[in-house]
Amino acid sequence: MSKIVDSLHANFRTYSMVIALVVIWILFSILTNGVFFEPRNLSNLVRQSSLIAILAIGMVPVIVTGNIDLSIGSVVGFISIIVAYCQYFIFPGLLSGLFPSFEAQTTFLGISTSMNGVISTLLSIIVALIVGLLVGLWHGALIAYLKIPAFIVTLGGYLAFRGGVLLVSGGRTISPVENTLVEIGQGYIPKNIGMILAILVVLCVFIFILWGRGQKFKYGFERYPITKDLFKASAISAIVLFYVMYIANGYEGIQNPVLIMVIILMIFTYLTNNTRFGRYIYAYGGNREATRLSGINTSFIIFKVYMLMGLLCAVCGVVLTGYVSAGTTSGGNLYELLTIAACVIGGTSLMGGEGSVAGAVVGALVMGSLNNGMDLLGWTNSKQWIIQGLVLIVAVYIDVVSKKKR
């Protein structure tokens, strides 16, 4: 019983945010006469929140190590404009000259396109990932090895990459982009395939939790009562089925950006909870000196954390370009603030050593729900920013108070 109580206490912030999310949904549903709870609106809400959620997943390890990244909004905008530039100016002419026979229109993922369009999109994604990786390497090297404070390095990146957006774009929107890229940001998974994926996810949840119990037994670790683990698996499965059956399939199906976000969430959940690298991240955030003295290469940990952040900025940049069907000069604007807010609201401590990627996704949904609900009510941007600012301050205050009590 005491282990269950300890678990509830350790994850209190995440659980309380799930409850808060449900309360927000019910409140806005009442205030909007049910419009908020319509499948179409919830589908759009989850799609919009998925961009911030992708970034928040990568930001959690950064904040857990006691660092910060203020540049991610500008990096996303920079990568988005590069992808659009490649799609509009570079690859179409290059590929048409190399493979003129591929210009014939075909059907790919249910949309009319050409093989040149598919190849152009694949090459653009590769370019985006390389740029994101290089940005992560740059930031990681400056912070981890040259010991320049993360706040200064990423603040400089915020300014530099925002300037890069204007430099590459020439101060104007770049469009259109290939249909296959648009499909990544705006497309849907067919409903029958979505149900199959949902069932597979539910099976994986139960298998993973039971496998974890077996591993704990094998190495002599304490285990929670099986009823507690089964309840946890059932709760996660219920959320997955509710989303797929009511929200996604109640409209057009699972959105491609949401599917990408879920895959990233699963990878990072395993990475942070079940790998040596993940344990080192939390150890470093909890006690830097003790971690260093134990022989762990702490500089390399920070370096890898920023590499992962750069890669997720690239993923978000690609999805953003497809979502708006263009590269815009305002792409990624204020994403860094919304991402940090999502992490803090989801239970990640700005003091380091504490946080979860699942909590950050819940935080992104909370922020997205507030924005969506206030839009439906016709509130002005000024009121919305005030409310979001107050929510962030309250979340940080709760974090400070809980840290002091412990």
What order do the helices and strands come in, and which of them pair?
Layout (H helix, E strand, L loop, with lengths): L1 H9 L1 H20 L7 H26 L7 H27 L6 E4 L2 E4 H31 L4 H20 L9 H8 L1 E2 L1 H28 L7 H23 L5 E2 H19 L1 H11 L1 H6 L4 H27 L10 H11 L11 H20 L4 H25 L1
Antiparallel strand pairs: 1-2, 3-4
Helix pairs in contact: 2-15, 3-10, 3-13, 3-14, 3-15, 4-5, 4-6, 4-13, 5-13, 7-13, 8-9, 10-11, 11-13, 14-15
Task: Provide a compact summary of the structure.
This protein has helices spanning 2-10, 12-31, 39-64, 72-98, 115-145, 150-169, 179-186, 191-218, 226-248, 256-274, 276-286, 288-293, 298-324, 335-345, 357-376, 381-405, and strands at 105-108, 111-114, 188-189, 254-255.
